[in-house]
Amino acid sequence: MKAVVCLPTRNEKSSIQIMIDSIKKLKLPLFISDENSTDGTIAIAEKNKVPVYQRDGKGKGYGMQKAVEVAKQLGYDVLATIDCDCTYPAEKIPELLAKIDDGAGMVIGVRNVKNIRKRHRLPNLVHTWAINILFFRFGSGKWLHDINSGMRAFRLGKIRPFKSKGFDIEAEITTRAIKDGLNIKEVPVEYEKRVGESKIRIKDGFLILMRIVKERFLP
Ligand SMILES: Nc1nc2c(ncn2[C@@H]2O[C@H](COP(=O)(O)OP(=O)(O)O)[C@@H](O)[C@H]2O)c(=O)[nH]1
Ligand SMILES: [Mg+2]
């Protein structure tokens, strides 16, 4: 299994060095999928000799689409992505990859709801329930607990290209994995306070719900 880690970034100068150091400790290959960062994020990545792939477009979905494209081009078969804001524990990436090695098609780092910011909790719960109900994820080991998680690993070969441009990308990746019959596993992860400014907006909550409903009725 050839796995690579990607940090999607837009103006993360205050957290990128910490994230690069924590991923380098794991001795895993790493690249950055950046979007128009103007705060020095790219210079820090280049100083650390971490390849940066840029693209024009605005939205985390674009960043993740680029990540899949680059990982495939570089010949990897597994991609692990983790938000570049020190909220997720990079040291848990090997545990996610081990579950992929054991046969899972996708592994999601599941946050403890208590650690998610209050105003994000209800939308996240609604999105997670919507996917479980609309995609009949009933029964042991099938119910998903955190579909918007910004930490996951998945097999590249089995997943179709994504269309989402914004923060509905995690909902698309999850619904795609369900529809493409991937065996989805979960690993509980701590979720820390964010370093730097969050880019997600209230409107993204509706965008994500629309994405879930669309994916339910689209092929
Ligand atoms: N490539 C790319 N990454 C983005 C974009 N917007 C946000 N990100 C990254 O996506 C991750 C999650 O964003 P964040 O603002 O923390 O959203 P939240 O965790 O849902 O509050 C961070 O690493 C951001 O830098 C974007 O437009 N393009
Ligand atoms: Mg975040």
Q: What is the average of the pLDDT values? A: 93
Largest beta-sheet details:
7 strands, mixed
Number of strands: 7
Q: What is the CA–CA distance across the termini?
A: 29 Å
Radius of gyration: 16 Å
Order of helices and strands: EHEHEHEHEHEHEH
The CATH homologous superfamily is termed Spore Coat Polysaccharide Biosynthesis Protein SpsA, Chain A
Strand content: 15-25%
Count of all domains: 1
**The CATH topology, please?**
Spore Coat Polysaccharide Biosynthesis Protein SpsA, Chain A
Q: What is the number of helical segments per DSSP (H or I, 4+ residues)?
A: 7
CATH architecture tag:
Alpha-Beta Complex
Q: What are the bound molecules?
A: guanosine-5'-diphosphate, magnesium ion
* Helix amount: 25-40%
Low-confidence stretches: none
Order of strands side by side in the largest beta sheet?
A: 3-2-1-4-6-5-7
Keyphrases for this structure?
single chain, 219 residues, Spore Coat Polysaccharide Biosynthesis Protein SpsA, Chain A, 7 helices, globular, binds guanosine-5'-diphosphate, binds magnesium ion
Q: What is the gist of this entry?
A:
The chain is an alpha/beta fold and 219 residues long.
